[in-house]
Structure formats: C-alpha cells, structure tokens
Amino acid sequence: MSGDQLSEVFDVVEVRGVLSGGFAVRGPWVSQTPIADPLKFIALVCGRARLTTDAGHGPIELEPGDVAIINNRSWLKLEGGTGDGPPRDVIPEEGFSSPGLIGADSDTDDVVIGGRVDLNAAGQALLLQALPPVGHVRASASAATNLRGSLDRLFDEVTGDRIGAAFAIRQYGQLLLLEVLRAYVGQAELPPGWLRVLADERLRPALSLMHAEPGRPWGLEDLARAAAMSRTSFAERFRTMAGIPPLAYLNRWRMLLAQRALRDSDVRVGSLAAELGYGSESAFSTAFKREVGESPLRYRYRVRNESSARGESA
C-alpha cells in the first residue's frame, strides 16, 4: 500500500482511533453490549474469546493480538474463560484506570480493550463502504507483524502507571488503528472501495498522479498510460478495485480536498475552484452541491458553527 496516499486520505477525512476502555477477567465470562458508534474495534491483548454480532455469522474465535473491526452493527457479544460454574457478566470499564486493568496478569487473565474510529462525515461514508460488517485481523498473519507489537506497547502504557500515560495511550490508539488497517488490507479480500484501490500495485502510478495534481484535467488515456495498461483494461480494473470509474474517483477526491479547504482555511470559493481544475466558480459549486448536498459556502458556515458549538460545550 502507498503509505503517503493512505496518510493523505487519513488527514483529509480526519481519521482518529480513540481507545475507550476494556476489562481483565479470569474464569468463565460473558459481555454483551449495544454499539452506539458506526465503527468500533475490539482487541484481545491476551487469553481467548469468541465474538458474535448481529452481522448474521457464527462466532469469531479471537486469539492473543487479534483485532476485530465492527462496522455499523447494533450489538456485540464476547465470551471467554475456562473453569466450572456459570459465566460471569462483565461490563467493560470506561478508561484505563481501573485496578482490574492495571493489575491484569497476562498469564491467567483474558484482557480485552476496545475503542472507536472517529471520522468526519465524508470519511465515515468512505470507510464504512470500504469494510465488511466484521473484519477479523489475525495477529498470526504475516501482514500483521507490527500489530502485536503496537498492542503490547499500548497495554504497557495502560498498566505501567507512568507519567504521560494518557497522552501515550491516545497516540498508540492512532497507531493501532493504522496497523489494523494495514494488516487487514494484507490478509483479506476487501470489498470495492478506497482501501482496496489504494492497495492495488498496478493502479498506484495512476492514483499517484491524481493525488499529486488533482486540478489537472486528467484523461483516461493519461491514467492508463501511467499504469502501463490499455484504456479498457485500466478502466475495468479501476472500477473493480474502487467500485467507481477513474474520473468519478478523481471528482470524489477533489470534493474531499474541497471540504477540507472550506473547513480549515479562508480560501475564496473561486480560487478553490480554479485550484481543483474547474473552469468556473459556478461549475465547481454545482459539482460540490451534487456530491455534498449543499453549496460550498453553506457547508463552510455549517461545519464551522458545529465546530464552535462543540468547543463551547467541551
């Protein structure tokens, strides 16, 4: 996968992996909780567990270091532990300061941590479409060599009681999400979408051109030549990987860049239109409204007002 392009997309759609808490338990146990977030992830630090959701498939067996990404589900159920007696009901702790988590024993306890993926509205649409209802990332797979290390370092911060631990946990949440997506791309057949197309080696030269110069009037011939493919083969492969034609992908990328510029800068709409390759401000505004559902200026005012309101309530 092209790390630069993935990082660029992450920045544009404001992806953040946010760790929320977890639990450590020994003996038979069960934990069933509703899911309020569109994208959630569950990581098994140590022990064994079985994951079930309303995705309509059988339980997924989780081993140490495994991570599950749960996409647009309403509930999840985890079960684990060995021994006699009925399973103990476990409610996940919020945060990482509970004595149970801090004093967890990796030799005897099942330890689970969880979190969510925060994105802006555009990013949520992209990532939800690019992932299955439940993605299982196996720590034992060759593509996940860095995942287990990231998870171990994260839990070391959780249990180490060191200065700056809260900051470190936030940073490791970001890195853990990146490693999860990297590993998932490497070990699973992705549905068509931006993750799959960014991972495609043959299309990478064409994608690099579109990302490097989004305002240039790229034609199918230019992009196919960069990928060393015929126009027909390139167009068919791109649609298979991305789920949309190449020029539709380019337009969507331009719109994502436009949304970031309108959110984060005071650039004039006319200047932004020219920068992104539109012949006039009205042509850009029409394209933006078709993709986003509102005019560029209305979008700018709305997202800035919403940001101010969140800041005042924090």
From TrEMBL:
Identify the InterPro entries for this entry.
Answer: AraC_lig (IPR032783), AraC_XylS_family_regulators (IPR050204), Homeodomain-like_sf (IPR009057), HTH_AraC (IPR018060), HTH_AraC-typ_CS (IPR018062), Tscrpt_reg_AraC-type_HTH (IPR020449)
Identify the keywords attached in UniProt to this record, alphabetized: DNA-binding, Transcription, Transcription regulation
Q: Which residues form a coiled coil?
A: none
Tell me which domain of life the UniProt entry assigns to the organism this sequence originates from: Bacteria
SMART domains named in the record: HTH_ARAC
Which PROSITE patterns has this protein been placed in? HTH_ARAC_FAMILY_1, HTH_ARAC_FAMILY_2
Q: Does the keyword Transmembrane helix apply?
A: no
Q: Which residues form the HTH araC/xylS-type domain?
A: 204-302
Instruction: Enumerate the transmembrane spans.
Output: none
Q: What is this protein called?
A: AraC family transcriptional regulator
Provenance organism: Actinoallomurus oryzae
